[in-house]
Amino acid sequence: MQTGSSDIDAIRQVVNQVLEVHAREEGGQRSQARAEILIHSMQVFAQRGLQRTTVQHLLDASDVSRRTFYKYFRNKMDVLESIYRIFIDNMLLHFHKEMKQAASARDIIRNTSKVYFDYHVSMGPIIKLMMEEARSSSSALAPHRERAQGIAAEVLTTEINRITNRNFDPLVFRTVLWILENYSLYIFEDGGFSQERLDQCQRTLVGIAESLVLGEPSPGMLESVSPA
Predict the structure, then answer these.
(1) How far is CA 52 from CA 16, 47, 173, in A?
(2) Which stretches are labeled DNA-binding (predicted)?
(3) Residues 108, 206: contact at Cβ < 8 Å?
(4) What is the DSSP letter of 223?
(5) What is the CATH code for 84-214?
(6) Model's pTM, two decimal places?
């Protein structure tokens, strides 16, 4: 993933926003040095992968001393865990915003799925790396994945139940989230991004969710689309 100045600025905005929230919740202050390590480490992990990344690579990318690095992080895995937490918390913020604005169950399904896919695509290959790592029960990322899925499923259940007056089990929406997670890996399969796969996954996911919640999908949502 080649990251330009505009991409770095966008990443910096997300990281700083989430770290400000964390600082308020924990009663501390946000460190800009810590933020810069996280921001520049994303590109390193995306390009090199977890196994081929060393602390020295992260130091070089963020232009900080080893002493400064170890003031905030124990090792490279600690950095990746912090990046993943930021990703999760920002995603949950977007989910809450979309569900508050939605006027119907169909709005919730379409808007939250669009936010999910758009965010994953904007983050690029590091998403695939983090999601594959988080699926391992022994990984430090796994508890954050579990927490995020639990929160998202509960919020979806509450909002869908409120709008439809139907009492869905939260496991229904956990299942939809598991599908989303697998689709996120699928669109980056074979080491690259596929717009065709993304369009197919968005259409299919919305069709499945509408079938579950509304009884039937919008016309064409579950049908195969032949290339022009």
Answers:
(1) 27, 9, 36
(2) 54-73
(3) no
(4) S
(5) 1.10.357
(6) 0.84
User: Given this model, what pLDDT does residue 3 score?
Assistant: 47
DSSP 126-179: HHHHHHHHHTSTTSTTHHHHHHHHHHHHHHHHHHHHHHH-----HHHHHHHHHH
Give the pLDDT confidence score for residue 225 in this predicted structure.
Answer: 65
Domain ranges of the chain: 5-76, 84-214
Backbone angles phi, psi at 148, to 5 degrees: -65, -45
Q: Give the best-scoring range by mean pLDDT among 13-17, 94-98, 212-216.
A: 212-216
Q: DSSP secondary structure string, 10-37?
A: HHHHHHHHHHHHHHHHHTS---HHHHHH
Q: How confident is the model at residue 2 (pLDDT cuts 50, 70, 90)?
A: very low
Residue 187 near residue 196, CB atoms below 8 Å: no
